[in-house]
Amino acid sequence: MTIYDELVARGLVAQVTSEDEVKNLINNGKATFYIGYDCTADSLTAGHFVTLTLMKRLQQAGNKPIALIGGGTTTIGDPSGRTDMRKMLSREDINHNAQCFKHQMERFIDFGDGPGQAMMLNNADWLLNLNYIDLLREVGSLLEQLAVLAQQKGDAVRKDDLLALDEVLKQEQAMTLNLRGLELRRLKLVGQLGLENVPLAGLEDHCPPELAPRARSVSETLRESYTAYRSCADMARTLLELNLHQLEKVITAAGVDPAVAAAGYEPPGVEPPKKMKTDFRA
Fold first, then answer.
1. What is the dihedral of CA 13, 14, 20, 25, to 10 degrees?
2. Exposed site from 15, 60, 93, 185, fewest CB < 10 Å?
3. What is d(CA 173, CA 154) in angstroms, rounded to the nearest whole number?
4. Residue-wise pLDDT tens digits, 80-127
């Protein structure tokens, strides 16, 4: 029986794609695989022993294990929606637990730099550089600028200042594109940090204790900025719609079909201007 067949027989393979390729890699000791561990305590449990045994068997067959310590994901608490949220830990506690995990794993797994030796990685090395709170601050700042533009747009509509309105609309379009770019970054960060089910109001509950006050402040500011922006944008849209309605009334009173006016209206009896011919020889 091959090592892959043994895994299947023991019920350790729940789902697989490209099975023939995976089977060939595992059976020939050419697979690199990882198993993740969130370090919420300073000791592994009996439940971890199942995955450690699997890791050991695959390593004995020549495959290369990666023990992935969740030093970064552990900092966000448990975003799964359970009512019993796991205890929030400081980064010092998490680093201590990660070291304890490694010390215990070394009793079972052969760590080193060789072809079949295991590696230990900590996702804190890249996830903690993804500053979600600073990104939210950028979004809030941009919303504040859009609120100011919405006010300027309303002022331009009141004054019938088409030049000012055109300039504001150009700036608004540019900032809206920036906002879309920030939203794409935010969605990527949310997925990487495992915060898909965490509302803005609950962000501080999923941060390390030392970051909770900062997260709460940024969340409150962002909600206030969004509320102000929506209020100003709704006001500007209402004024613009009122002006367009008044303009439609004037056009209708003049006996012109608004649809025709929108397409380009020329009063009867008025000849269109002739094309200008310029002599460049002078």
1. -40
2. 15
3. 16
4. 444 444 555 677 887 888 888 888 988 889 988 887 889 888 877 766
What distance in Å separates the CA atoms of residue 122 and residue 43, rounded to the nearest whole number? 16
Considering Cα of 189, then 139, then 86, then 39, what sign does the dihedral take?
Answer: positive
Q: How far apart are CA 143 and CA 34, in angstroms?
A: 41
Length of the chain: 282
**200 and 101 assigned to the same domain:** no
Q: Which of 81, 19, 208, 228 is nearest to 142 (CA)?
A: 228
Segments of the chain with pLDDT less than 70: 72-89, 126-130, 132-133, 192-193, 207-211, 247, 250-251, 254-282
Question: Which of 127, 147, 163 finishes a domain?
Answer: 127
For residue 268, is it within any domain? Answer: no
For residue 148, what are the contacts with CB-CB under 8 A and spacing of at least 6? 232
pTM of the model: 0.48
Beta-bridged to residue 120, according to DSSP, are 67
Same domain, 161 and 91: no
